[in-house]
Design brief:
Layout: H1 13-40, E1 50-52, H2 56-80, H3 84-110, E2 113-116, E3 119-124, E4 128-133, E5 137-146, E6 154-157, E7 160-165, E8 170-185, E9 193-202, H4 207-215
Parallel strand pairs: 7-9
Antiparallel strand pairs: 1-2, 2-3, 3-4, 5-8, 6-7, 8-9
Length: 218
């Protein structure tokens, strides 16, 4: 018997564990793919599409963490250099952490939101990547909203479900959909997995340019 996406039961513990391990592997691979894209100067933008960043509010914070991670490596190495086994482990962990932070930063830079012939592709961090075709989209408007901290990504009000990909609790673009549309989020149900949503809200660093690009298609 088929169940509505909104009413699906949570998966078993074993299934959750397997999904978590697979998700961790995909994130790790995405880190190195982002670094490769940055080195090759090949952002994930389809031919004919325009990219729009959403990283400006967190860029300074990311750079601070990267600099601190880089400084931490030689300091810790100096502290533990008398114990070779510990030194190797600490050095490997430090390099991995620095690489991970760089991959996260490059993910923001190389995987922007896009507006193109196929529709609007909205992204967040290392995992979320959703294509909304023009046939699915009813309207796009510039509409700023600030939510309470820790508000769920998918919220329901008056029977309508909204996916909000916030940056520091804010969104500035609302994409209203023609009908309840399935989108896939990181993780498993009930918070992740496939969800039905009626509109999508996102943050864009350049909402004016984003709306101008949208108007060339609708």
């Amino acid at each position: 018997m088929s169940l509505d996406l909104r009413e699906r039961a949570a998966p078993s513990v074993a299934r959750r564990l397997g999904a978590f391990l697979l998700r961790a592997l995909r994130v790790e691979l995405r880190i190195y793919a982002n670094i490769g894209r940055f080195v090759a100067r090949r952002p994930a933008i389809a031919p004919g599409a325009a990219g729009f960043g959403y990283h400006r509010p967190v860029l300074t914070i990311l750079w601070i963490f990267i600099v601190l991670s880089a400084i931490e490596i030689p300091i810790l190495d100096l502290i533990v250099h008398r114990w070779p086994a510990v030194r190797i482990a600490v050095l490997a962990l430090g390099i991995w952490g620095l690489t991970w932070m760089l991959g996260l930063l490059f993910g923001y830079l190389m995987r922007p939101h896009t507006v193109g012939p196929d529709g609007i592709r909205v992204r967040e961090g290392l995992e979320t990547d959703i294509l909304l075709s023009w046939d699915d989209i009813a309207s796009v408007a510039r509409e700023r909203r600030v939510d309470e901290p820790k508000t769920a990504k998918v919220t329901e009000k008056d029977g309508a479900r909204t996916l909000s990909l916030r940056m520091q609790d804010e969104t500035v673009i609302r994409i209203e959909l023609e009908r309840p549309t399935p989108v896939r989020l990181p993780g498993t149900a009930p918070k992740g997995g496939e969800q039905l949503v009626d509109d999508v809200r996102i943050w864009v660093d350049d909402p004016t340019g984003f709306m101008a690009a949208v108007r060339t298609h609708i």
